[in-house]
């Protein structure tokens, strides 16, 4: 689609646009650590944990566990309810898995080596981003604006943390 007569500055502008878009993406992610400081282990009620979280498109869910002992499978609702591989859509085994949540829908994760039956299952609902929440002039915009600004700040730090951890994992 690019015009052959585009001036030489165009490629750099494209690079800048891509970087800017990336920065926006970075600022819009929260890393939800499953089980918080309890991690991904048997005999924890992950419904209580997930009920306390609000997930938005672009956030991450991350699982921390003993590599080799546990793992993570994304399944569908049937797999989640019955602790089976029904509807399996992915698996992770690193012990420190950062899983992106790109769609607004329910996600179901279980441990794939029998520990699902001991509670290692978590279901979450990912909500669409509400871009116009703070620009609507309907009473409580101030509080909402502050909330989303704080959320954006938290999100960018969460992403940087996730990136740093990912980089560290490679070293
Ligand atoms: C987790 O806690 C909720 C709320 O107390 C409860 O309804 C649910 O049955 C519990 N789940 C398990 C697997 O114990
Ligand atoms: C849910 O969040 C509240 C407020 O942050 C906290 O007091 C409570 O311990 C949390 N519950 C669970 C199960 O994490
Ligand atoms: C799995 O759980 C669903 C409920 O979500 C149930 O209707 C179905 O019979 C179960 N399937 C198996 C094979 O246990
Ligand atoms: C989950 O996947 C299995 C196997 O593909 C399928 O039979 C089942 O209907 C699916 N369950 C749901 C709730 O989509
Ligand atoms: C786990 O995922 C890999 C690809 O990442 C796939 O090749 C493998 O078959 C999956 N294993 C299971 C049991 O689904
Ligand atoms: C944006 O605002 C319109 C009303 O002006 C509303 O219908 C819509 O749901 C809002 N979108 C989001 C993502 O909040």
TrEMBL record:
Region forming the signal peptide: 1-28
Entry keyword set: Disulfide bond, Glycoprotein, Signal
UniProt xrefs under PROSITE patterns: PHYTOCYANIN
Keyword Glycoprotein set for record: yes
Phytocyanin domain mapped to chain residues: 30-128
InterPro entries hit by this protein: Cupredoxin (IPR008972), Phytocyanin-like (IPR039391), Phytocyanin_dom (IPR003245)
Domain of life of the native organism: Eukaryota
Pfam families tied to this protein: Cu_bind_like
Protein purpose: May act as a carbohydrate transporter.
Stated family: Belongs to the early nodulin-like (ENODL) family.
Record's protein name: Phytocyanin domain-containing protein
Species in which this protein is naturally found: Urochloa decumbens
